[in-house]
Every structure is written in C-alpha cells, then in structure tokens.
Amino acid sequence: MSTRAQTVSFQSLRLPHRVTWWLVFTAMSLPLVWLIATALTGGLGANPIEAINRFLGDWGLRMLLVALAATPLRILFGWTWPVRLRRMLGLWAFAYVALHITNYVAIDQFFAWDDIWKDILKRKFITVGMIAFVILSALAATSWNGAIKRLGAKAWQRLHKLVYWAAVLGCLHYIWMVKADVLEPLIHLGVLAALLSVRVWKQLKTSPR
Amino acid sequence: MLIKTPKSWQLRESDATPEAIYKDRRKFIKGTAAAITGGIAGSVLGTEAFAAWTPGTKLPGVVKSGYTVDEPLTPYGPVTEYNNFYEFGTGKDDPVENAKDFVTKPWTIEVAGEVGKPGTYDVEDLLRPHQMEERVYRHRCVETWSMIVPWVGVSLADIIKRLEPTSRAKYVAFETLYDPKRMPGQNRRVLQWPYVEGLRMDEAMNPLTLMATGVYGEVMPPQNGAPIRLIVPWKYGFKGIKSIVRITFTEQEPPTSWNISAPHEYGFYANVNPDVSHPRWSQAKERLIGEFFKRPTLKFNGYGEEVASLYTGMNLAKQF
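^ inputs. structure came back:
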C-alpha cells in the first residue's frame, strides 16, 4: 500500500475527470435530494422523524462504503479515477452522517442534552455511533490539502486510517440498533468485510515474506 | 383462583350481564329459526352480526364505552399503515402491503389447558354472546412512539368467564397463526414462530383487557391483527398479540416471543414504565404519532388507577 497521502483537489483534475467528478458528486447527492423532495410532499409516512433518521443513517454508512471502495477498485481493476474522487466521496459520507446526527439532536431529541448524554453513555449502539461520528469529524476537518502539510503526510495518513474503524463502528451501530431483523445490517457489514479483505489480500501479496 | 376483591369496575360487569343474556336469547332464537327454515336462512341470520369479515365494513351493534381518552384520535391512516407485525415483514410499512390479501374467514380459535370448556371455536361464536364496545385507548410501543386508537372489541374477562377456567389456571397464553404461505414474514426466522404471548390471570381478567376485532368502528384490517387480537393498554404494544388462533390456560408462566428473542430487553410483564429504561430506548418519553415534541410517558401508560394494584409488592425494575 502506498504511503503517499492521497487527497486530490478538484482544481488539479483534468477536464474529463472534472466531468466524472461532477457526475459522481451529483449521484452522491441523489438520496438527499430524494429525502428532501419526499419530506416536502409529505411522503415520509406516519413517523417522519424516525424515517429521516433511518434514511440518513443508512446512506451515511453506504456512502462511507462507497468511499472505501476506491482503493479496492484500483487494486482489482487498476482504475485510478475513483481514488481521485475519494475526498469528495468521504465528505459526502460525512455530510450524511452529520445530518443523521443533526436530526437526532435537533429534531428527534430537540436538544435535550441530558437525555442525549444518557443515550450516549448507556446505549452501546449510540456509544459506538458517536465514536464513529467523532472519527469522521476529525477526518473531515483535516480533509483539505493544508492539513496534510501541517500534520505531515505520515501522521495525516495514520489519522485517516481511522476511517476503517469508523466504518466498523458504523456497522456495529446498525447491527445493535435493530431489534431482531439483522439481515440488512449484516449485508452492509459483509460489503465492508469484502472491501477490507481486498486491501488485506493486496498487502499480503506485496509484502515480503 | 378467581377470588376477587370488589373493585369499581365490577359495577360495569354487572351492567354487561343482561346484555350477554340478551344476546344468548337472540342466539337461541336464531338457532331455532335456522332449524325451522333450513340452512340458508340459518347461515344468513347467523352471520348477520359479522356481515362480511372484510376490512372497511362497519361493525354493527357497537356501543361506545366509558373507556376513552380525552385526546384527539390518531388518524386512520397512521393507525393502519404504520404497524409492527413481523409476520408480514419487519418494516413499518410492510404489513399494510403484505397483509392485504390475508383471508381471515373462516377463523377458528383453539381453547385448551386448564379450562372447563376446551375446544375449537369459530371466532364469531366466541365473540357473539358479548357486547362489542368501542374503547379509545392509548397505545404505547416499546420503540417510544404512541397512538390514540379507537379499538372495537369485547372484554377478554367476559370471554374467559364463559370458558370456565379451572382453579389451576394462573396464566393465559396466546398464540398467533403459523402459516408461512399466508404470513410471508414467517419464512425468515426473525423471531421464533409462532408468536406467543401471555398474561397473568388477574391481568387477563382486568376489565381494561380487550379482545379487539375492529378499529375505527370497522372490521379490523389484517395489518392490525385481524380477525382478533389482544389489547392490553397499560403494557407495551408487543404484548398485544395479533391474529390469535390458540388460547391456553396454564399453571406456569407461559413463554413470550420477545422475551425469548432478547431476555434482558423484554420481560414477561412489559408494563409501560418511564422509570425502567430499556437497553435500546429510554422509556421516559414518547412521541405521539403526529406530534413534533416528545411527551413524558405515564406509568402504566396512564392506567395506573385501574392496574397498579395488580403489582403491589413487586419490584417492577426487576420484573419488567
């Protein structure tokens, strides 16, 4: 695995890549656009706050998996363009997760900080979810080019490897959240396991014995 | 044991008795008429009270009960479209979709165990002698949402008395239909099927406990648990077992589905209790469907006056 800190700004992309960037950017926004349109037309059902929460949580995790697919795509197919988009993909994942948390804090709990704090401490699915959110916040905050320079490429990369933990904790958050039907959470976990095992496979193949 | 200290509600019970006798008399006349005029006339008369068991049909002969809540009803839409009924899928909007062709007629209920009149009863025969009442109850789900629902049904106590449980009957166990062909959710073992629930005898005999067959004055839609389900308004919604096919009177506490699934999360009693938090959800507050702000949850879902005495001396944090 390369030790080069890899974050590519939009400005540094060539024209065909800029088109790809915008197409993928638009695709990543579609679930959010759907949610807003459905909410405005009253299509979120009897419990819209719960529906928003589930939707944003689902897509936060899925977008994180999309961002984590960039490297496996390069390893397996030699595609380099997803890696160029990785910062944008990661920030979209963060955006969905941040909106998920905002909905929980500002709408579902309506800033009942006491209750929120108890939730974080007492309910393990919320505990791990919040840890994942803290990790993603740190990564989002250091996603700009200047941050790599300030932290140094090595430290920056070490920090950003926490994304794997954020994804694992995100899956755990989902598995522990559901009451009985763990099929969907396990599908997400399975995708994550597949993505991570490609990296491990590559590591084992290239590292000297 | 069925020795009970007189409570205020027993006045209501004595009010209801003449109605039951009256209905029995009608049934007798109907039976005679059937014998005289033959099968066709008999079947027409016999099903008159239940018309066609199709959702949306108005249930006749329903009286308004004194059990009501001074709050606006949750509209028909959410009541019939936002359901937890895992036999038809685990999503809230799965049951309304997957249960729409669920046939609930004919429907029989097997009565067994410590009971004087065991047997297989047609659901209509089980209900017919009793007065159908509309009762507006608070409905509190363990997932911390709630509704105000106008159920239609008959008092479970009335049915139980007629079935004559023996002195050994300490609990009543209920069982949902197991038929994966008709209940597609049962093809996946999300819970142990069939769904089972139970009440202690005194809980079952409490006048609040209802066997519901309708909602909003109409025959109950399948996604709500047609043709017959349990309503125990001071307990979390999952105690309200749906599409019941078996009632067993037992000496031992019967197993209950969610307790089997996650024993440290769901107890046998499952009384609504804001002071006993659940591993997944604080139970201190709830969101009434249709409202933005959460509201404080009431102990026993606001029915403490009627039921708190059932649990005197019990540690409700341990026996949750």
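The radius of gyration of chain B is 19 Å. Chain B touches chain A through 28 residues (CB under 8 Å).
thumbs up if we can close this ticket
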